[in-house]
Request: fold
Amino acid sequence: MTAPGTPPAPHKGSRWIERWDPEDEAFWEAEGKGIARRNLTLSVISEHIGFSVWSLYSVLALSMGPEYGIDPAGKFFLVAVASLVGAILRVPYGFAVARFGGRNWTIFSAGLLLVPTLALLFVMEPGTSYTTFMLVAVLTGVGGANFASSMTNINNFYPLRLKGWALGMNAGGGNIGVAVVQLVALLVIGVAGAGHPRVLLSVYVPLIVVSVLLSARFMDNLGPVRNDTGAAKEAVREGHTWIMAFLYIGTFGSFIGYSFAFGLVLQNQFGRTPLQAASLTFIGPLLGSLIRPVGGQLADRLGGAKVTLWNFAAMFVASAVVVTASVQKSLPLFITGFIALFVLTGVGNGSTYKMIPGIFRAKATVRGMEGEEAAVYARRLSGASMALIGAVGALGGLAINLTLRQSFLSYGTGTGAFVAFLAYYGVCFAVTWAVYLRRTAAKSATAAAAEAEPQLSYAEV
Reply:
C-alpha cells in the first residue's frame, strides 16, 4: 500500500495512465478531456446495464401471477432484498477502483452481471420455491453495486468545475437502466404476454457480454489513484460523510425504492393488470434519470446546497399530493404526484453528489492547502466518502420497500408509507438548511470574526 505523498511505482500494461492532472487546464484541453469522455461513455454503458439487472425483480414481479404463489408482501420483500445487497456491496465496490484500477474493475463487475441474469433465466417459472427466488434476488444486488465503483472512477477523471456535470451524466446514464428494463418488459408483455419473462432475460445476456468487451478495449486505469485506507478511515470519521448519506437516502434512496415499488403499488392498490402497470412504471425512472445531469449542472452554477434545499421542499409538496391521491383513490392524481417525485429525485441526486467533492475541497482550503495539494486531498476524501454515501443512500430503497410492505400488511394500502416518506423529506430540508446554508448566512453577519479565523463556507458546495 502506498502512503499519501509517496511517489507510486508505475503499473505494467498499456491501459494504465501514470500522469493525470485534470485541474491543469493545459493538460485537460490537450489530452485529458478526450480520455475522460471516453471513459465516461464506457462507464455509463456498464453502469446502465448494472441498474437494469438490479431492477429485474421490479418488472419480473409483474409477471408473477397467482400460479407463483407469492403474495404482494412477498414481492415487496424480494425487491427489498435486491436493494439491501446492492447497498451493502457498494462499500467494497467503491474502494475496488483504487485497488484494481477503474478499467479492470469495470470488466470484472460488468462480467459478474451474467451470474444473476443466467440464474433467473434458469429458475423463472411457476413452481420455483420462494427461497430460490430470494437467493437469486441476492445475486441481482451486484448490479446496484456497480454504481459506487463507476462514480468513484469518474470522479477521478474530471476537474472540480465539471464534476457536477460529469457525475450527473454518469449517474443519469446508469439510472436510466431502470427505465429501459421496464420499457423492454413492457414490449415483452405486450408482444409475448406476461407469461414469458425469459424473453426479457435473454435480451440482457448478449448486452452484458458486449459491455465487458467494450470496457476491456477502450477504458483506462489511472495510476495516480491508489488504495488509501487512511482516506477511508478519515471519511468514516468525517461527520459530513454521514450527513450527506442521510440526504442521499432522501434522493437516490427514493429514486431506486420508488422504481422498484411503483408497479407493485399500481397492481395492488389500484388494480392495474401487468400490462397496464408496465405501461406506466417506466415514465418516472426515465424522467428522473434524464434530469439528473440537469441537477448536477444547476448545482455547478447555483451551489449544490441551495438546489438540494429547495428540491427537498418540492419533494415534500409532491409527497403531499401522493398522500392525498392515495386517500382519495385517485389514480390520475397519484400518477401525477409520483412522476413529480421521480423528477425531483433526479434533480436531488445530481445536486447532492455535486456537494461531496465541494465539501472536501472547502475543508482542504480551511486546512491551508491550495493547488494540487488541495485537489489531491479533495479527490482522496470525496472518493472514499462516495462509496459510503452511495451505500447508505441505496439503503433508502430497502427502507421504502419494507415500509410499503408493512403498510400493505397493516392497512391494505400504501398511504401510511407515503406519510412517512413525506415526513422524511421535511427532515432532510431542515438538515440541509441547518448544516450547509445557515452557517453561510451566519458568516455574512460576522465577517470580522470570519477573517480572523478560517471557517467552512458551503454557499457554493
Observations:
- Strands lie at 16-17, 221-222.
- Residues 19-452 form a domain with the Growth Hormone; Chain: A; fold (CATH 1.20.1250.20).
